[in-house]
């Protein structure tokens, strides 16, 4: 089956046709091509929708082998959670699981992540395929019913009654955990639901970890823990939207996967130094080395080993250059045995992934930091997190039991490294 669609990107609050994508799927074989439109290329404000795999230019481009879609386009499609919803809808209405093209194109909701949208012709954004999910908004008062749907959506269980209501708000966001878009005071927010099988209060702990990251000098997304039914949920203000003339505007967003031209399955092939290099190539000017370093150190200190490519995002600024988005998805990964390894190497690829303060300091020079500076930041942040993580998580609603559960993840916090390190007992 071959599907053609026009890719639109919002520029200054208007959906502009950028080019045409063609997706061919035939069993396990897939192929994806894209060409920018001539009119788009003539615009002064034209930007590449993917600075690595789809640079601006007139050529017809083909996605590299093993990539069902170009990375920058794939960023506009959902991950595990949204795919699960779309699959259930496809099974319900078409009697078969959804295809890659459907995962990308099915949503007609205004909630899609970033600034890309799709249409059948360059005239307007709109449905491309028979399977489609129409726009619906979710408000705070709907969240209990939404949470109920999340709880009931186990494999092979009958579809919950309000399934259709929450398809649109639920499908457009990435990540594996159940989430949706909720409109608060006319502005879209992302809500991450708790699950009955969670081993600790995810909302409270995640909010607290982001608080610590903010204290560490990292811009983080605005957040709130709210009560939904018998559980807490985390509400995050969407940073890929902004107030503008004529209402809420979309900001184009790419993942670090796109920035690095990497493949989903590239575990262990990239390091924080690659992120730094990618930022130097494609980001606005700034001290990216220290920004990346602080994020890496906080992942070590909070024991967050889920620092994969999609947990770093970049937002388009003017002039076609990017900036790191506010930080999100920092949570302690529960693990009792063995070394704790980050997803990315600390420093260059091959430098090692073990989450220790020593490895973090050693990575400093590959991020442009002098060794003394790297050591100082590590010791300062370690002291801060060691002294404050319990009270910070507690103030977001974590219980003593939650703190016990995650304590092992904070085992590096409070330790000192380097010449003035106090010897360990
Ligand atoms: N505040 C936000 N605004 C806009 N997009 C966000 C925000 N927070 C996260 N995202 C996007 O949603 C995706 C899923 O969020 P994340 O917190 O990583 O969930 P999960 O825990 O399921 O991985 C992210 O990969 C990112 O693309
Ligand atoms: Mg995530």
UniProtKB/TrEMBL annotation:
Keyword Kinase listed: yes
A single MF term (Gene Ontology): protein serine/threonine kinase activity
Pfam families the record matches: HipA_C
HipA-like C-terminal domain: residues covered: 172-389
GO terms for cellular component: cytosol
Highest taxon in the source lineage: Bacteria
Keywords: Kinase, Transferase
PANTHER family named among the record's database cross-references: SERINE/THREONINE-PROTEIN KINASE TOXIN HIPA, TOXIN YJJJ
Similarity annotation: Belongs to the HipA Ser/Thr kinase family.
Protein name as annotated: Serine/threonine-protein kinase HipA
Protein's organism: Gemmobacter caeni
Organismal lineage: Bacteria, Pseudomonadati, Pseudomonadota, Alphaproteobacteria, Rhodobacterales
């Amino acid at each position: 089956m071959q599907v053609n669609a026009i890719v639109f990107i919002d520029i200054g609050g208007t959906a502009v046709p950028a080019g045409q994508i063609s997706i061919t799927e035939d069993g396990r074989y897939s192929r994806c091509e894209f060409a920018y439109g001539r009119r788009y290329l003539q615009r002064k404000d034209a930007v590449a929708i993917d600075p690595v795999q789809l640079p601006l230019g007139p050529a017809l481009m083909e996605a590299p082998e093993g990539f069902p879609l170009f990375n920058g386009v794939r960023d506009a499609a959902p991950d595990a959670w949204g795919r699960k919803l779309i699959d259930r809808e496809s099974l319900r209405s078409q009697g078969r699981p959804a295809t890659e093209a459907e995962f990308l194109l099915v949503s007609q909701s205004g909630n899609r992540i970033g600034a890309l949208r799709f249409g059948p012709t360059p005239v307007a954004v709109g449905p491309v395929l028979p399977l489609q999910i129409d726009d619906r908004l979710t408000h705070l008062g709907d969240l209990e019913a939404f949470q109920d749907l999340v709880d009931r959506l186990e494999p092979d269980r009958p579809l919950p009654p309000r399934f259709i209501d929450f398809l649109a708000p639920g499908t457009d966001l990435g990540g594996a955990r159940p989430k949706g878009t909720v409109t608060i005071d006319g502005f879209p927010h992302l809500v991450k639901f708790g699950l009955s099988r969670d081993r600790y209060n995810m909302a409270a702990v995640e909010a607290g970890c982001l608080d610590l990251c903010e204290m560490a000098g990292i811009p983080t997304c605005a957040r709130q823990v709210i009560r939904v039914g018998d559980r807490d949920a985390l509400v995050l203000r969407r940073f890929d939207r902004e107030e503008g003339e004529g209402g809420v505007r979309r900001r184009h967003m790419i993942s670090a996967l796109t920035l690095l031209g990497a493949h989903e399955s590239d575990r262990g092939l990239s390091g924080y130094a690659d992120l730094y290099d990618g930022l130097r190539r494609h980001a606005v000017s700034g001290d990216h080395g220290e920004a990346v370093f602080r994020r890496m150190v906080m992942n070590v200190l909070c024991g967050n080993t889920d620092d994969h490519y999609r947990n770093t995002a970049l937002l388009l600024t003017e002039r076609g250059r990017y900036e790191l988005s506010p930080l999100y998805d920092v949570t302690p990964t529960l693990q009792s045995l063995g070394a704790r390894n980050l997803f990315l190497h600390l420093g260059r690829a091959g430098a090692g992934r073990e989450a220790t303060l020593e490895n973090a300091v050693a990575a400093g020079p590959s991020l442009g930091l002098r060794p003394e500076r790297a050591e100082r930041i590590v010791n300062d942040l370690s002291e801060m997190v060691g002294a404050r993580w319990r009270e910070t998580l507690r103030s977001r609603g974590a219980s003593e039991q939650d703190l016990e559960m995650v304590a092992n993840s904070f085992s590096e916090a409070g330790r000192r490294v380097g010449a003035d390190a106090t010897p360990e007992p």
